[in-house]
Known about the structure:
Layout: H1 31-46, H2 53-66, H3 70-78, H4 84-97, H5 101-122, H6 130-134, E1 139-144, E2 147-152, E3 161-164, E4 174-178, E5 181-184, H7 186-189, E6 195-197, E7 202-203, E8 208-209, E9 214-218, H8 226-244, H9 249-273, H10 276-289, H11 293-312, E10 315-317, H12 320-327, E11 331-335, H13 336-340, E12 341-352, H14 358-369, H15 375-382, E13 393-398, E14 402-407, E15 410-415, H16 426-434, E16 438-444, E17 447-458, H17 462-471, E18 475-479, H18 484-494, E19 498-500, H19 505-515, E20 521-525, H20 531-536, E21 539-543, H21 549-554, E22 557-559, H22 566-600, H23 606-625, H24 637-644, H25 663-668
Parallel strand pairs: 11-18, 11-20, 18-19, 20-21, 21-22
Antiparallel strand pairs: 1-2, 1-3, 3-9, 4-7, 4-9, 5-6, 5-8, 10-22, 12-17, 13-14, 14-15, 15-16, 16-17
Amino acid sequence: MADACCGTDTPTPSPSAAEPAAPPAAVWQVRELQAAAASGALLLASLFLPAPWDTAGELAALLVGAATFVPGTLRGLLKGRLGVGLLMTIAAVGAVALGEYGEAATLAFLFSIAEGLEGYAVARTQHGLRALLDLVPATATVRRGTTETEVAVAGLRVGDILLVKPGERIATDGVVSAGRSALDTSVVTGESVPSEVGPGGEVFAGCVNGAGALEITVTATAEDNSLARLVHIVHEAQERKGASQRLAEKFAKPLVPGVLVLAALIAVLGSLFGDPGVWIERSLVVLVAAAPCAFALSVPVAVVAAIGAASKAGVLVKGGAAVEALGKVKVVALDKTGTLTRNEPTVIDVVPVAGTDRARVLAVAAALEARSEHPLAAAILAAVDAQALTPGDDVEAVPGNGLTGTVNGAKARLGKPGFIEPGPLADDVGRLQDAGATVVLVEHDRALLGAVAVRDEIRPEAAEAITALRGQGIKVVMLTGDNARTAAAIGAAAGIDDVRAELLPQDKARIVTELQAHGPVAMVGDGINDAPALATADAGIAMGAMGSDVAIEAADIALMGEDLRRLPDAIAHTRAARRVFTQNLLMSGGILIALVPLAATGVLGLATVVASHELAEVLVIGNGIRAGRKKHLPAHTALRAAHKSLTRVRIPDQPTAKTVDTATAAKVLLPLSASATSPAPKAGGGCCDGCNS
């Protein structure tokens, strides 16, 4: 990490299937902080040692502390790079030249702490990308000629015929040449409902095959498929951000050469017109005076305080660069599934035909779905009494349409409009689809029973959070892989005007880049498919502790709870922390500006300069602690308690059923069916109308 002060010597290689990323170091495993602890212990011990052992202890503390930044500084210097580390190195050398070994050791000790804190704070580890690579099976079955062979995924070639059995993961990208099935595409698209594919349909690496067998013509090798591209996009974005976001380095370029030139001028010009010994000593005192101890500590101390307060409030912030970036955000891009919504599809309405009751519609639907793994099945089964459920017989999937079977001795069907004609329910089906719901029709004994609408409900606090963001002067955009109809309904309910739908991961990353023209962008998401956009954004925010490892690793901030109002709270907190950063930098910079000329003119001697440094450090640390105040991070316990119980009580007699437990909770739960208008869905056969297929 010491090298990072002056720039890394070589770029970090992108993780690959052959070389997965190593796990990150814990804070106590950071080499700089270990060295700082050893240096501090030696420095403390020297205070109690008799001469000459006290000097030996100070020199040992100096060597241990300096080892964290001097080697990297020298390597950077050979490559023409100047950094704060160079100024600290020269200041330590100057202190030694003046015989102030304790001061030199103190400088090295303090700067090693600053390096360790800063390095740990901005480190962008790659180990979560292993989760992406693990989604691809180690082997795949291919047919070459008339022979079926199991080969390593790395051996797949473009044009191979990949054979994928039910329940298997797809090894690489391709196009379906034979067979039909439902795919869980959430890895790539974020779509919460599986999409149906058939001949000619495009499929992606890592997607899980449903009940049908598929033959897929390979269109990309393992090194160039969609998952490999995700890894590359995330890695490139993290490398780009890591190279530009070290706060101290923003000030190092003008500070370091300026101080060096000034010290040289004092030594040379003073020697020409006065006693060389006096002026050379003054130039060394100037170097010590210009040692940016307080300056180097100003940001890390405030970072630790701000991060500590945020973590206690359920917001995990990964360092000073993340605090600074989030505090400057002008645009927030939100994923839909799992971020604005709960990612828990539920039955929101049941519309029976005249003469049929709601319970019978659900009973027949549940009997057909009883042994299905489809998310719609889980939603329907959750709406009935499991103990009273009798599974149907001879249930078969009709790819792209629905299910058929026998319930109570009579033929039954369940499926999308078109597979079963909606008849008198056509208007109700249209209304529910306009509300963003997936609608299935239920038929028993050749008679239409009714329609069941399933939807992933919006989080109850979403609209309040969006309003708070707008109150902070932030533009809000929704990015989702879901179909346009569902996206428009959710966006309208949350109060978001700018909705971008049917996006692949690379589309989200591209749009984030475009939005950066309006100012710094924060991207909020919870899935693997959001990782490129999270890494590309100025501030990536992973939503929820149950978010994917890849999303959490690619993000700069993680909202560990499920309350979306943590987002505006976190922005307010980081804006306050940035003000503390600025105050510390101005204060420590002002002290340096005052000390240097006073030291150069001989007004201040070395002892006074050292004392001034210590005072500056106390002031900076004291002010930095203010960044830990949690006044911008309220608990929000009332709504969180209501949120946890929202699934327990259902109100069946309302046009759009809601799950609530109290009148207060009902007020903040937004109905989606009231006003949303949206474009017509894409043409194509999904398992039911509303699927993104």
